[in-house]
Amino acid sequence: MALKKKGEQSSEDSKKRKRVGFAKIDAGIEANECIKVFLVSSAEEVGAENSLCVNPVDLNQFFDEEGKIYGFKDLKIKIWLSSISFLAYADITFESTSDGGKGITDLKPKLQNIFGESLLDNREEFLQSFTTERDYVGSVVSSGEVICSETLNTHNDKPNTSDSGSYTIEVIRMELRSMPIALLYSRLMPLAFLFIDGSSPIDISDPRWEIYLVIKKMIDFSGETNICALGFATVYRFYRYPESWRLRISQILVLPAYQGQGHGRRLLESINTVSISKNIYDVTAEEPSDYLKHVRDCVDTMRLLSFEPTTPALEPIVSQLKQTNLSKRISKFRLNLPSALIESARDKLKINKKQFLRCWDALIYLSLDQGDHKSMENYRNCVLDRMRTDVLGKDVGTVGKRLIEVPNNYDHEFTFVVFRSRAFEGSDGLEKVANGEDQASQEEQFIRLVDERLKEIAGVASKVSMHRRSCAA
Ligand SMILES: CC(=O)SCCNC(=O)CCNC(=O)[C@H](O)C(C)(C)COP(=O)(O)OP(=O)(O)OC[C@H]1O[C@@H](n2cnc3c(N)ncnc32)[C@H](O)[C@@H]1OP(=O)(O)O
């Protein structure tokens, strides 16, 4: 073996060194960019150009390292999700693979993290499932309890007046621990992961879980009844001391193709029906999305409007808003909260206090003349004032200790934090008021918050007015 002296380089060595550069490290590709999910209801739709492509909340979360997939060139993943059996199949294509410094992502376990057992390996088996599993949902829900049933006309989705061209929408309630429904839920769970922000699996062995399925029943040309699932809600029953129960909506999802057709409302109304029939204490929702809040506010505001004690409770506050000038900061809303109505709405309609207060805003708004500048200005000031109290604490105006309501998953009504605001305590230990600049920016934030809240209230009020007009017509 020839030894090379230090410092001595052959011309061959120096050529080699020139050729050894720093290879570019694989930047990877985001899962959101290369994965497309299609919701299909027949074998013909699998691979078809016009199949329904749906938008999951965030696929990156299922992949490591900033949601990226490494080692593939021109990677394309098409996931076909059957709305008949809720089985899935992934078509994966790529030009080549190479380890560019970050390895080659093992796709199968990653996709199984989302789809679990419902991800099939065999394309043929998946295609056949549209036939073999055609009655799957129907057979599972056959033992469930029908909570609501509505027959609609195919042409205009209005309650049916003739027998032809009709279908039935039902909401079915089942306990999750029984076997066939537990298996169906395990196929629905990936949908919750895909379409509900921050969704996590639930422990179906806990007997307090139940599921509400909204299904469509239709008789086909051969006279057979086809049943498919359009959405679902999982609900947990909590014990409430000393001897009652509360229902908490954990996940609610209407399949993308069927959203905005009243199925979310039907699920919520069915949960309300059950909570009343079983004399549950109240109903809450776990971290509701903004849109779910909107739908829920519409549903509960409508219910409160037809609740007898509501109108007399509204009258005094509405007449006050019409007459008084409330431009100065006073807590009229807090002072005038209708505690008897809050309690009877909880008792009879199972609307929890936090939810009641959201609807109360909409009910007052609906009772005011939108063209009357004074009452609308008063209303705005009251909402602003209530928000200040909510954010700054129950004890606005006193320095030092403050009491703040903080959200939690279990019960929004009963969590408070007491703290000593730094803005009110100087380094010399003397209590001071916040400086002018802090107060101005705080005020700006409140104005922004109040504008957003007023927009939400107006959205609910307009939907409720439309719904009332169409019911009256
Ligand atoms: C706790 C959690 O799970 S949070 C996550 C919630 N789920 C998701 O985000 C998943 C994706 N989204 C969905 O699945 C659905 O959109 C849901 C479940 C949020 C709502 O279900 P949908 O079927 O889409 O709602 P639905 O058709 O019943 O309501 C639609 C409209 O009718 C209105 N409406 C419903 N009931 C009434 C009523 N009684 N009176 C007046 N209006 C009503 C709603 O306000 C809404 O109005 P809009 O036109 O302003 O949007």
TrEMBL record:
The keyword NAD does not apply. InterPro entries: Acyl_CoA_acyltransferase (IPR016181), GNAT_dom (IPR000182), Hat1_N (IPR019467), Hat1_N_sf (IPR037113), Hist_AcTrfase_B-typ_cat-su (IPR017380). GO terms for cellular component: chromosome, telomeric region; cytoplasm; nucleus. The keyword Cytoplasm applies. Residues 229-271 form the N-acetyltransferase domain. One of its GO terms (biological process) is subtelomeric heterochromatin formation. Its EC number is 2.3.1.48. Residues 29-197 form the Histone acetyl transferase HAT1 N-terminal domain. Its main location: cytoplasm. It catalyses: L-lysyl-[protein] + acetyl-CoA = N(6)-acetyl-L-lysyl-[protein] + CoA + H(+). It is found in: Cytoplasm; Nucleus. Pfam families: Acetyltransf_1, Hat1_N. Keywords: Acyltransferase, Cytoplasm, Nucleus, Transferase. One of its GO terms (molecular function) is histone acetyltransferase activity. Belongs to the HAT1 family. This is histone acetyltransferase. It comes from Acorus calamus.
